[in-house]
């Protein structure tokens, strides 16, 4: 395939690694979230349910930080999950500005059913790498993800 960008070797290495990282991430994300459509869940809705299922109740700000979404986007996601009875919002008695989100029994039952399948798909995809490669990938991603 012809290359259209010609930069310094440093720029070309960075761009090449960046494109490969994005493509790999998108491929894994698509493959692991494909089954969510059968449950009428978006990846963001699943992320909210997963966080609440594994971590427990959180305020909207914590939840947004945990799943890497803006609080504006998260409000809509939580509202849609609430309409389906999968989560509930609770205002703090001490501070009415504080809104906590918790998973309902219905949401917990859904996650108990679908999370093992989701995890199995992740394991299948990540099994393309040897254990040492997975550990190295995790280390490198952590390094890239840190705010310097």
Structure description:
This protein is globular. It is 65% helix and 8% strand. The chain has a domain at 40-126: Winged helix-like DNA-binding domain superfamily/Winged helix DNA-binding domain (Arc Repressor Mutant, subunit A), CATH 1.10.10. It has a three-stranded antiparallel β-sheet. By secondary structure, the chain is mainly alpha-helical. α1 packs across α5 (105-126). A hairpin with a 7-residue loop joins β2 (87-91) and β3.
The arrangement of helices and strands along the chain is HHEHHEEHH
Helix content estimate: 55-70%
CATH architectural type of the domain at 40-126: Orthogonal Bundle
Taking pLDDT < 50 over at least 5 consecutive residues as the criterion, the unreliable ranges are none
How many helices? The count is: 6
So what's the oligomer here? single chain
**Rg, Å, rounded:** 19 Å
Shape: globular
The order of strands across the largest sheet is 1-3-2
CATH superfamily descriptor of the domain at 40-126: Winged helix-like DNA-binding domain superfamily/Winged helix DNA-binding domain
Strand content: 5-15%
Structural class: mainly alpha
* Distance separating the two termini: 35 Å
Q: What is the CATH topology descriptor of the domain at 40-126?
A: Arc Repressor Mutant, subunit A
């Amino acid at each position: 395939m012809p290359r259209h960008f010609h930069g310094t070797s440093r720029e070309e290495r960075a761009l090449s690694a960046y494109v490969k990282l994005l493509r790999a991430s998108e491929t894994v994300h698509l493959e692991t979230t494909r089954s969510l459509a059968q449950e009428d869940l978006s990846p963001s809705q699943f992320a909210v349910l997963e966080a609440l299922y594994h971590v427990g109740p959180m305020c909207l700000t914590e939840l947004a930080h945990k799943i890497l979404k803006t609080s504006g986007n998260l409000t809509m996601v939580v509202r849609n999950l609430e309409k389906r009875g999968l989560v509930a919002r609770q205002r703090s008695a001490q501070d009415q500005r504080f809104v906590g989100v918790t998973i309902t029994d219905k949401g917990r039952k859904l996650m108990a059913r679908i999370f093992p399948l989701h995890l199995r798909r992740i394991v299948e995809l990540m099994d393309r790498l040897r254990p040492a490669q997975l550990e190295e990938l995790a280390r490198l991603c952590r390094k890239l993800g840190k705010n310097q």
